[in-house]
Structures are given as structure tokens and as C-alpha cells.
Amino acid sequence: MTLSREAIVDHLKNMVGPERVITDEQVLKDNSHDRYKKFETIFGVYTTPIPAAVVKLADTKQVSDVLKFLNQNKINAVARTGGTATEGGLETIVENSVVLDGSQMNQILKIDPTNMLATAQCGVNLGELEDRLREQGYTAGHSPQSKPLAHMGGLVATRSIGQFSTLYGAIEDMVIGLEAVFPNGEITRIKNVPRRSCGPDIRHVIIGNEGALCYITEVTVKIYKYYPENNQFLAWALDNMKTGFEVLREVMVAGYRPSVARLYDAEDGAQHSFDQFAADKCVLLYMAEGNQRIAGATAEGIAEIVGKYDECRPIDSKIIENWFNHLNWGPEKIIEERELIRKNLHIGFTTEVSGNWDCINTIYENVLERIRAEFPHIDDLTMLGGHSSHSYQTGTNLYFVYDYDVVDCKPEEEINKYHVPLNALVVEETLKAGGSMVHHHGIGKYRTPWTKAEHGSAYYILKGLKDQFDPNGIMNTGTIYPVEQ
Amino acid sequence: MKIAVCFKTIADYGRLSETDWAWDERHFVDTSFVRRIFNCFDESALEMALKLAGTSLNASDPAELTALTVDDRQSDLFLKHLTAVGYHHVARIQCNKKIDLRFNSLTVSDLISTYIKQEEHQLVFLGRQGGAGDNRQTGFLVAERLGWPCIREVTAVVRDESSGCLKVTSRIDGATLVQTVKLPMVLIAGHCIDSPYLRVPTLKQKLKAKNKPVTILSNTRLGIDDDTLINNGKTLIDLQRPQANRPCIFLEGKNPREQAKRLYAEHLKQVFTL
Fold first, then answer.
1. Is A289 at the interface with chain B, CB within 8 A?
2. How far is Cα A239 from Cα A249, in angstroms, rounded to an integer?
3. What is the CATH number of domain A228-324?
4. A340 and chain B: CB distance < 8 Å anywhere?
5. Which tens digit of pLDDT belongs to each residue from B115-140?
6. What pLDDT, in 10s, does the model give residues A457-480?
7. Whole domain around residue B49: which residue ranges?
8. Domain count, chain B
């Protein structure tokens, strides 16, 4: 028998205490969405079903008890910590969903300089962890723009990546061990060892599961020595993205690992005021860091490679350093953005994809060409461009950035008029060229139409995980896995 | 109705660290590595004028907008931006680079008022203060030189259709004033809640604006020679860092729980509502 909304709330209160079960209407509304629906929610419109309750979880035992109850009663559970998701993964699309808020599980459990590990509960803010590490001369090496707001659980759940990924890797390269709770209440711990050969690496069942398989309660990540005094910035202006991709590739293939390796097209660069220093040009920039010898050799090696390209003209590194130091999004930027959207009916989004070196420029060119040719509201666009910000031995990512005026439509119509079709054009062209449709935001709920196309025959494995760990389908319905009609 | 909006671009001072605030022998702080932005009060004035022009499209004398700045070529990008968002004319007064205009509202107002007279504008918008000088004088001095009335702390302007006048809203000492005024007039923009940000041009508008010219005038062409600008009776002797106390609010409450509740409701709630 399906439990009523009131019965769900009563049961939850009995399990965790009434003070931990929030039913305030505005809190429920705020927890029904993430940044994907930022436009309509800024105007006070909430089109997603409002959850029955938000449960402020205290510990792993409570997570287990609550999940077991929800599973037994087939109630949809949406895991949430910092709330900075961008792809609809936090939307409560099923009536009477329960939001499992882990933000109060916020203890840094251990910093272990001998083994170079830090263990934190899911609700620990990454910025706070980083501050604690830096006090002791270490860094987590993970620095997404959302660092001041994002929590460890959410970062691991979405396979997040940071601005220094080219040196430190993405979150999956940093996570050593985990604790997670499955919908049947099973608590699992994966131990912290440097490497092992004991069957498949089961960390990857949990990392990136977006709350669709289990609830992450604790994370252990690597830490690194922090040498900010050795950071070196390098930047060049160049005429076209194709050359930029070639340089990015050559640097990576030569074995250099700058912490930052970015390539902006002229349009996207102008958003960052690069046009004030390199009008109508693409901008290629690097940051070399690490101990003095490594940072020096990295900067020198990159400069030597770029120097072979006549097209590249140096930019004052101080400009890039100053820009980079102001890139993160804290609460004040969120407020400013909301204000700008409200006043000017103007909004921007991104779609991030990846591809190997042999197709990345094709993806870049084809996506932009197709949007210009096919998007019916192109006249409302104020910006269309992109950049690469995470490079690998084998390829790189692409961040397509599009801003637009919201014209002649209600707040709740904005998504389908603009964001969804633009997102679709990016994803389709990327898959067509052989790339991946999502680089680091997660699939969420809006790229699920292409989950099967993304994985092809390997979807069998992905589907198997859902069948095994969440047979009742209560874990964040509609995320990663498309809702079957 | 010919409208001129005077603006300046400034370095984004929020991006300078404490150690960056070092000056040379001419008392100039190096900001060459920091992006430039519209001075915020000027940005409001620019947007207010666009809104006014938008409401007067069908009027018998539609608004003709000019954006004017006294600066060197670093402002050209901003002037292009203004062309794209709807300014009919954009002009820049280029002075000899040796002339320090930062604390010299008198000179700047001479240049602006001379231009306004030459071009026969009837309405001048300016932001109330801005840039390194923060002088808060230029608007008043422009009005004085033109012999026009002036309203400060303006937050909105619309046409009064019946009289052919303007209805100007300003906010002074916590009171809101709405005045119906005849042109000519100088309006000084203050904290403007309705038009804080300049609109963003579409791709199409940007493309169209790309090849539109920027009018560049020298001070000599306006009939003001370099000596007059340099010998203005002002000498900058020294710069000093002001006391940098941050404003704070004391939250009253019976107990920490009540204080925390107030902190959330009054200050944090909007931050957490993503």
C-alpha cells in the first residue's frame, strides 16, 4: 500500500526525531530543484513536484534506517548535500519524494599526513576541508568553481572535476576509500589502500552514481603538498581553436602536467574580459605548479612547445593570474547572478562534453555551426562559444557556453524554449563525432535521453548495477537512467 | 530629444589585492593587468537612458542617444558594446596622456559641457561618482557650466506623455521624490534598484555594431588646449590608504538560537536558495 504524504512524514519523524524532518513549504520548494531550473525558480515558479519532506541526516545509521524505510515503501529518495548540481539531478520528479540532506554530516574525521589521506563526512564543504589542509601545508588538489559551496558527498556522486585537474586528476583519481549506504540499508565501506588487484575496482560503482544507486556518507581522498609560491602562469593569444587544440595535445603528449591547461575561443574569452587584452583572439593559458623544480621545468617545457607556433603571441601572465584568482563562485556571485537574471531576463548555461584529440575540433566546429543554423531562437542569443579546461593524454573536454535573453515566454517555458534544445544540439553532435556527452556535471535528469547512446553495448553493465542495487527503483528516479514509459 | 550619457570605465578594484595597491612617482597604481568595467553608477545611467529611449519610440521627437567618455582607446570596446545595445552615437574625448584627470572634475566637466553645447543635447545623464577619484562633483559642475537644472540620486526616468516633460524619480535622504521637469536638464544617477545592470547585446547586435565608428575628439578640437587642462590649480601631493573597516551588523536576539534564526532568515536564506 502506498503511504500518504502525512504518513511518510510521521514515520520519518519517529525514526530520526521531528526536528530533523523539515516540512516548511519554502524549504521543500527550494529542495525540489537544482541550478538547472534556476530561471523559473528565481521568479518563484516551481514546476517540479514538491517533496514530502527534507530529512537532515545525523549519521550513517540514520541514513541506513531511512533508506530501508523508503525502500520498503517504494518512496523516491533524492540525496542532497551542497545543492550545487547543474543538470537536474536534485529534482524531485516523483510525487512525495524524500530529500536526504547530508549537509549536517559535516565532520572532517581525519587528516593523515603520513599516508597523505583526508577523511570527511559527506556534508563537509570542500572549501573548509581545503582551508584545514592548507593550514598544515597540504591541498586536496580539487578546486571546482563551486568549491565555496559544494560538499564532499555531492562532488563524489557527480564525478566532479576541479580547475587543477590536469595535474591532480578528477575526483575519481583522488578518492581512495568510501562509505556508502544502499537502499536496503546495507552499509558498505571500501578500505583505504594505495592500490589492489582484488577484482574490479568497486569504488567506481559508487563514484558518479548521482544518488541513483546508493548514498555516499564518507569519503577518503588523497592529499598533496601545497606549494603556491612556485605557481607560474603562462598565456598566449592565437587566431584559432584548431591550433590551440594542437598545442594542448602536444604539451600533454610530451608528458607535461600543468595544473591548469585552458583554451578559450574569442567569444567565451570576452566573457572573461580577455578581449580587453587580446581582442578577437583565442586565449591559451597554463598554470605550472608543484615543487620548485617541477613547476619550473613544466613552465619552461610548455613555453618551448608554444614558442614553435608563430600564431601564438604571449600575454602578460599577471593578467591571467589575476583573472584566475577570481574565478570561483561563492554565495555573493550566486546572489549577483540571480539579480542579473531577474532584472535583465538574461541567463547563461553550459554543456560540457569531451572527445579524443582526433575529433575535438570537429565537435567544436560542428556544434557551433549547427546551433547557428538550426536553433530557432538564435536572435535571442547573446553569447555562443566555448573553451577547453581539462586535458588528458588522449583528449580534452569542451565547455559550450550559451547566454540568451528570455523573450516572450513564461518563466517555466524558458527551459524548453532555450536550454533543452541547445543542450540537445551539443549532445547530438558530440555523440555523432564519437565524443562523450558529459564530461563532469553528471547526466542528471536532462541528458538521460542519450544515456543508452552514450554507453552503447556497455549500457548492459550500467543497467545491471541499477537492477542489482536498486531493484525497487527508489534511488533518485530519472537520474542517469531514463524513466521508461 | 538628444540625450548624452557620460560614463567612465574603471579598473575592477575588487580584483586588486592589498599588495597591488602600490603607486609610482606620479601616484598612479598599476591596474594594467586587471579587467576594466563600467563604473557602476554610470552603468545605471546608461541603462536608464536606454529604457527612456525604449519608451519614446513612437514619440514625435524620439530619443537620440549618445554615449560619451573622456578616456583613451581602452574604452573603445565599451563604446562598441554601447553601440550594440542601442546607442546611436558613441564618442570619446582623448586628452594628452600626461594630464591626470582622476581628481579633476573641473576639467572633465569643462570637456563634457563643451561637447554638450556643440552637439546641442537637451538631456545629460551621469553617474554620481566613480573611478579612483570618487569626486562626486562632475555632474554638478556640468550643470553649472551649462546653466541647467540638475537632479541628483536619480533612480528612474520616464516621459510624461501629456506635457512632453520628463518624470524623474530620485531618492534622497530616504525619501522618494517624483518630479516633472522640462528640458534641458542634468540627471545624476544614484543607487538605482530598477536599472542596476546594463543590458547585454545579442550576437546579431554585436555583429552589426562591429564596424560602426567611434567618434574620437581631442581636447584641442573642443577648443581646450593642454595648458588649460594641466594648469588647473590642482596638484596631487600624496595618496594614502583609507582605514579599511568593513561594515558589520549586530544581530540581537534572546539566545543564540534566535540569533541564528535571524541570521538565516535575514541574510543567508537567499544565498542558500540556489
1. no
2. 17
3. 3.30.70.3450
4. yes
5. 999 999 999 999 999 877 788 999 99
6. 999 999 999 999 999 999 999 999
7. 2-240
8. 1
